[in-house]
Design brief:
The protein has one domain. The protein is about 10% helix and about 35% strand. It is built from two helices and ten strands, in the order ββββαββαββββ. A six-stranded antiparallel beta sheet has the order 1-2-3-10-5-6, covered by helices on one side. It has a two-stranded antiparallel sheet with strand order 4-7. A hairpin with a 5-residue loop joins β5 and β6. The longest helix has 8 residues.
């Protein structure tokens, strides 16, 4: 399911000033590695990077191909249950994350593991009319 909204009308995450007047899409990424795992979905909000005239068609969601999960310290996971870390980044047309930054975290000690994992992610890029497009994203990572 894809939710289409604007920065102000909401999607899956709060407005962190990443999106302006563009059409914002929200999808939920299944992060299970097996069908029996109980891992919450991650929230991915995205919009095409502004260019002259902007994209003419709908932006098809990117899809993570290589997605190692962060190795977060167990004591911190237990200290902050049911909170969400929010990451901002740009996904280029080749499928790699750039300009990764943390928008929300309950503890700065969680950040290094998350940045290390995300630096190794690879996506099937977002597309408009069958062509890869760069997008800006917000990624919501729920803690168990």
């Amino acid at each position: 399911m894809t939710i289409v909204s604007t920065a102000r009308s909401g999607g899956g995450l709060a407005d962190f000033g990443v999106f302006a007047n563009e059409k914002v899409y929200t999808v939920f990424m299944d992060m299970r590695e097996s069908g029996e795992e109980h891992v919450p979905a991650w929230t991915l909000q995205y919009a095409a990077v502004s260019s002259a005239g902007g994209p003419k068609g709908e932006v098809v969601a990117p899809s993570p191909v290589i997605r190692p999960r962060p190795q977060l310290p167990a004591p911190l996971l237990h200290k902050y249950p049911h909170t969400v870390i929010v990451i901002s980044a740009r996904l280029d047309t080749a499928g790699y994350l750039e300009d990764i930054s943390v928008k929300q975290t309950p503890d700065a000690k969680l950040v290094p593991a998350i940045l290390a994992a995300l630096s190794n992610w690879y996506f099937r890029p977002a597309e408009v009319d069958g062509q890869p497009v760069a997008i800006k994203i917000l990624l919501g990572i729920p803690l168990l």
